[in-house]
Records
---
Amino acid sequence: TDFGFQTVDKDDKQTMVARVFHSVASKYDLMNDLMSFGVHRIWKRYTIEASGVRRNQRVLDLAGGTGDLTAKFSRLVGENGEVVLADINDSMLKMGREKLRDHGIVGNVNYVQANAEELPFPDNHFDCITISFGLRNVTDKAKALRSMFRVLKPGGRLLVLEFSKPVLDPLSKIYDAYSFHILPKIGQVIVNDAESYRYLTESIRMHPDQETLKGMMEEAGFDQVTYTNMTGGIVALHKGFKF
Ligand code: SAM
């Protein structure tokens, strides 16, 4: 179960993440449905409901990729609101922009290529930030969380949707077997790239568990940090406020 990614340095991790998402971009949505049996749609819908986003608000969908959350927020904020889809990877951004335009989602969405660690936005700018299945790919997570805190308005909230630690032992074992043995095979067949999905598995295993991530958010300045486990803790939604 050691694919050697733990020992890579900062630049190597960023290069690896870039390679992975360039490689999978064109099949990203199909892979999400296959790998999660479609359940990622439920996790995302729950996130939108928990966000409390209303008309006319300004939302940042960070590491937004192919824009599933952006599409939903665009409808919620209406024509006088704004959604910014930011992602470090131009292949993913391109897929997102094309998909949303095909769905007629235009007007209140802007696309920005940006690194979560150094967000190119003014202080106190957004009512809500989401980062969905993105934080685990960021090299310096503490720096990214501080950057998110800076660009949130006072009273604004951050939602982090991410793989986490399964809370039941048997589930944990099945999940490990699935992710180590099956996921890379699906990756091999669909995108001809088992290596990218080995990275995915490894990045999930290395990601901070529920309580650790909560502590990291508090460390970055967030208040009233809570989390909700979904699908037995395979995924968790963390929420925190800037006051
Ligand atoms: N949010 C989308 C979703 O839930 O389907 C996409 C998630 S995808 C697994 C992870 C995304 O994070 C990729 O599009 C990748 O390019 C982006 N990403 C990785 N590192 C990043 C960074 N440092 N800053 C911004 N985006 C990053």
---
Amino acid sequence: ESTLGAAAAQTGRYFGAAVPAGRLSESAYTTILNREFNMITAENEMKMDATEPSQNQFNFTSGDRIANWAISNGKRVRGHTLAWHAQQPGWMQNMSGSALRSALLNHVTKVAEHYRGKVYAWDVVNEAFADGGSGGRRDSNLQRTGNDWIEAAFRAARAADPGAKLCYNDYNTDGINAKSTGIYNMVRDFKARGVPIDCVGFQSHLGTTLSGDYQANLQRFADLGVDVQITELDVEQGSNQANIYAAVTRACLAVSRCTGITAWGVRDDTSWRDDNPLLFDRSGNKKAAYYSVLDALNGG
Ligand code: G3I
């Protein structure tokens, strides 16, 4: 196959991209997006600050623009994200305790209800674990409402959109390490207690090396009975960029429950990073990394 989406579909997987709503009016950009990708994530437009700028006053204008573009072009949508310590609206940043818990669950419910039937998978909770060696939770206003805030968010999301796959999503989980093991233990506990969780997202914002146990880490989560997805892939440009992209792609293909890969942007000039980490250059040309991913998806 000659596009990322079609090549991924040969094994029942998807290949997606994160998109800012503003780019949907740039035809050079949407030409690439429409041709190559078959899963769409809003880069910022479905986050808490975007969707609930004032308490219980929701604004879905930009998120809808992205979801409707995706659906009208035959693509699926990964929702990002219902609950996060960052990009909270100002009114929420200063809340705590039971008021914050209620506000959080109202947010999860209302946003997931709005997009019910349109979202393949939601990043229900994003980045709730700490970096470093503790393997524990990140401190945040949400965490201070009680350790059970994550499962409460998942239960609210399930009730609001029973058809969406519900994911936990995080970064620096690219191998077997303290942080990924902390998440692994949470997922194992959720599965044992019947907390609704269907998938784990591995953001995979990568530098110039890839952990040798990247695939083994995906596999150990899959073995818990959840899907795994590469959710925000980008890789520092350098001599190893194409190799790392290919290795990540092959790792996903080797794990039967790895259902797809999303790149965190399309062209290098639209990336949140300044180290040219994407598959298309600033002019929209396919990079070596692009060809290495396509070749891997085609079984090469
Ligand atoms: O849209 C406003 C604009 O109106 C304003 O004038 C300008 C001034 O700061 O800011 C603009 O918003 C920025 C937004 O991107 C859109 O460009 C925010 O400041 C900026 O913080 C925001 O950055 C986003 C970042 O998440 C925020 O945490 C990046 O685009 C986005 O790629 C990045 O994505 C995250 C994932 O959600 C979670 N995982 C990590 C990943 C990379 O940081």
